[in-house]
Write a structure and sequence with these properties.
CATH superfamily of the largest domain: Carbonic anhydrase
Strand order of the largest sheet: 2-1-3-4-5
Oligomer: single chain
Bound molecules: cobalt (II) ion
CATH class of the largest domain: Alpha Beta
Number of helices: 11
């Protein structure tokens, strides 16, 4: 099976060179992506493919349930490098409907370490308890939680000191919240874009 992957890789590299002989030479020298993608690890949500971007065009951080926890050094290292060094112009927080991680946060079952990782989602759920009580369809409830989770992570990113400092320096930087649909492959913009500290304060 791994032989197949290696063969796929050789084909892919050959195709890239066939359409653009300088492709790898150019990328070898530097990466200059304009976007940072913070998404879920789910194998059905392949970042570059969804938005049609080539290698070198999208800086990517993925974890279970697309979280941006202010104490997570992995996420923070990615964020700082993207903002301070790469100077990306857009940060895309991209959740997806039907997210198993989001569902696992609130289904009451114990799984171990991941229950702690998913804790911020339970907080979002508790904050919006009334809204959820009014949604009778379970799938609809999960999908709404996926949206609210993205909005919460947008707030985390937009209120982070790395992002604040970038705005203070006059750097052009926006944070966006999207949700991807597994059923039709389309991304929905939640219209919670934040491009300055004032807009960040207005987020719920
Ligand atoms: Co997911």
């Amino acid at each position: 099976m791994l032989e197949q992957l290696k063969a796929n890789n050789r084909d892919w590299a050959a195709r890239k060179v066939a359409t653009d002989t300088e492709f790898f030479h150019r990328l070898e020298r530097q990466q200059a992506p304009e976007y940072l993608w913070i998404g879920c690890s789910d194998s059905r949500v392949p970042a570059n493919e969804i938005v049609g971007l080539d290698p070198g065009e999208l800086f990517v951080h993925r974890n279970v349930a697309n979280l941006a926890p202010p104490q997570d050094s992995n996420y923070l290292s990615v964020l700082q490098f993207a903002v301070d060094v790469l100077k990306v112009k857009h940060i895309l927080v991209v959740g997806h409907y039907g997210c198993g991680g989001v569902g696992a946060a609130v289904d009451g079952r114990r799984r171990g370490l991941v229950d702690h990782w998913l804790h911020p989602i339970r907080e979002v759920f508790d904050q919006h308890r009334q809204e959820f009580d009014a949604i009778l369809d379970e799938r609809e409830r999960l999908n709404r939680l996926c949206e609210l989770n993205v909005m919460r992570q947008v707030k985390n990113v937009a209120t982070d000191v790395f992002v604040r400092d970038a705005w203070t320096r006059g750097q052009n930087l926006s944070v966006h919240g999207w949700v991807y649909s597994l059923s039709n492959g389309l991304v929905k913009d939640l219209d919670v874009t934040v491009s300055n500290p004032l807009e960040a304060e207005r987020l719920g």
